[in-house]
Design brief:
It is built from nine helices and no strands. It is mainly alpha-helical. The protein has one domain (15-166).
Length: 192
């Protein structure tokens, strides 16, 4: 079995997070960084859920055990300490009793893990002179990501077997009304 998806920035099994990191490091806009983080989040969740399935575990299994520390420990052990599953257990321990709260805390924990690493790695670098500058920027990105996080949480809450699709590319996310109308005739032809 392949190595588990990771959230260790710069590690060999967390390469998808290098692009958002580079976007922030290179002084990219909040919009660009938000898009890159969203793509990485969707990809990481998709890959992790696939790996969980290979271990014979689903998100439903974790949700069903969210009130049992021992049950979660057993599942995490079965998945060889998968980092996303460990974050789920931490979220379950700190969240309220509702499934939705647990899911929201889990996705937030994934993002917090990545943003904490980005802040620490970029502090005192060229584009982000202090830790607080980076932290302020990542807070802006988190706020911009909130609708995407809510969509993910809602989808998992409605169907724990849902698999996140690939996030839309920048080009797909922006609609161009001219291109949309190109295939349509704007002149109505009267039939004789």
């Amino acid at each position: 079995m392949a190595e588990n998806e990771s959230l260790d920035l710069g590690g060999p099994y967390a390469r998808r997070w290098d692009v958002p990191f580079d976007s922030v490091r290179n002084g990219g806009s909040c919009k660009d960084a938000t898009h890159e983080v969203e793509k990485a989040l969707y990809g990481g969740l998709r890959k992790s859920l696939k790996q969980w399935n290979e271990y014979g575990v689903s998100l439903s299994d974790l949700l069903n055990q969210r009130d049992s520390k021992q049950g979660l420990r057993n599942i995490i052990r079965k998945m060889q300490g998968h980092q996303y599953a460990r974050l789920f257990a931490a979220a379950a321990a700190s969240s309220g009793p509702s499934q939705r709260e647990c899911l929201r805390c889990w996705v937030d924990a994934i993002l917090d893990t990545m943003f904490d690493q980005i802040c620490h790695r970029l502090a005192d670098k060229e584009n982000c002179p202090t830790f607080y500058d980076v932290q302020d920027f990542t807070r802006e990105v988190l706020q911009a990501l909130d609708p995407a996080v809510e969509r993910i949480v809602t989808r998992f809450d409605n169907d724990p077997n849902w698999r996140p699709p690939r996030a839309p590319s920048k080009e797909q996310g922006q609609s161009n009304p001219t291109k949309e109308l190109m295939g349509m005739s704007l002149v109505r032809v009267a039939k004789p």
